[in-house]
Amino acid sequence: MTTFNRRDTIKIAAAAVATTVSFRPSGASPAPRLKFGMIGINHGHIYSQSDAVLRGRGGELTKFHAVEDDLAAEFQRRYPNAERVGDERAMLKDSKIKLVISAAIPVDRAPIGIRVMKHGKDFMADKPGIITFDQLAEVKHVQAETKRIYSITYSERFGNRATIKASELVTAGAIGDVVQTIGLGPHLKRAHTRPEWFWDPRKYGGILCDIGAHQMDQFLHFTGSTRAEVVSAQVGNFHNQDHPGFQDFGDAMVRGNGGTGYIRIDWFTPAGLGVWGDGRLTILGSDGYIELRKYIDVAGRNGGDHLFLVDLKKTRHIDCSSVELPYGPQIVDDVLNRTETAMSQDHCFLATELALKAQANATRADRLSATR
């Protein structure tokens, strides 16, 4: 694609994250507790990942590796104290680095994570952190063998203040027992900014594997499910025939031992919305429900992080823009203390497994032809 500019892609994605979450640590910087490195800058989520660890009560980014000079230059402008290394082995063999993060091309993330764990370090991948069943099996084997952390940053939960507030409310019993989640993940495509791998499901895993991983994570988290199955799933390419293998729509129904869920994801967000997607989550409980408008309130309230709570007494809107994001401090603590406060390893893998199963079993949802 001759119009593609990788630097534009990174800036767009980074700006999209910044519309909801400020990852910059405030106040005096604490003494570094953990040195970490980075391999792969192919998605703008690398900035929110980096800043989450920096915000984690003393994370220090010391080295990074990227083969693309333009992406590396942009990254180093943001983090001037980080040393660019020409070979990832310089990082993997550095005993001072305890954690490696990555937003490489999705198909490369699991292999990077496997190498990281085999070198005795913990790993944090952007989602999708794993895009095939073979990758999942190998990652699970190496993780069990090495006892290292393989964390996937499900940022629609970890990086969204309204979702964190919803977790607090659900835990406190604000809506009774959770019955179902409905997760909607529309995205703005911006085709002219996208790299070639964006259009190839062999590189990104397919729409349910990719964006759907967010929704599977939220379904498991809010229903408290530790076992789950995919009831049905479908994917389609409705409006991108110039890229026949691309999927611009997907949905799925899931059920677990804690509740049920429905997800719908697509690449049809209109440019007029003003943000990269009107991400929504509805959590239905026995005594009420919560609806999140994560990135924009189409009714006109400023900013993102909007939560609407309807319970047995009243209806109210909660501005969640000042809610703290715990993922960064928790993952740093987990690396140092060998705990699972940010997310259990079982949960991490189960969310990915559900996304992979939905993708693998999905029927085609393209329009019926006139001759059928």
Give me the CATH architecture of the largest domain, please: 2-Layer Sandwich
The helix-strand sequence is HEHEHEHEHEHEHHEHHHEEEEEEEHHE
- CATH homologous superfamily descriptor of the largest domain: Dihydrodipicolinate Reductase, domain 2
Q: What is the CA-CA span between the terminal residues?
A: 35 Å
Rg calc: 20 Å
> Roughly what percent helix?
25-40%
List segments where confidence is low: pLDDT < 50 over at least 5 consecutive residues. 1-28
Class per helix and strand makeup = alpha/beta
Q: Count up the helices.
A: 13
In the CATH scheme, the class of the largest domain would be Alpha Beta
Walk across the major sheet and give the strand order: 14-13-12-11-7-10-9-8-15
Largest beta-sheet characterization: 9 strands, mixed
The total number of structural domains is 2
Shape: globular
Number of strands: 15
CATH topology of the largest domain: Dihydrodipicolinate Reductase, domain 2
Please indicate the percent range of residues in DSSP E strands (runs of 2 or more). Answer: 15-25%
State mean pLDDT (0 to 100 scale): 90
